[in-house]
# Entry
Amino acid sequence: MPAPTTPAATADTLDGMDRISLPVVPAVAAAALVPWTIGLATLLPRTATARHWNIVWAGLDVAIIAGLASTSWLARRRDRRVTPAAVATATLMCADAWFDVCTSDAGLPFATACAAAAIEVAVAATCLVAARAADPAEGFRARQSASR
# Structure
């Protein structure tokens, strides 16, 4: 008997989007960002004044705190939703580390930013481990069934 050829049976669609064309959007976006990034690197001034600098940094830190708290809570509950929370938190922490280092003054402020960045990247890596542990094929569910 021939195999069914419906989209659901062949898994050729993902919510109406062709699985083959799905990677095209990020690829086009990446290609479009190359000249944009070169333009930013060459045309932007070396310094700038930000009116709400303190709000920007405090807001980022609040988002990181919320991400860490939700990642911890979801991981303790062995909830698969820990994956997006942990990945988002790790991303925010790496961005924070990058900007801390890149916007710090020379000398002790730079050394302090580098030390803080090392800690942030280590915590971000732990978040990614939590995200991986929540993978049903590899993580919480696999360990739970093995322990039964």
Summary: The beta strands are 13-14, 17-18. Residues 49 and 103 are 12 Å apart (CA to CA). The first helix runs from residue 7 to 10.
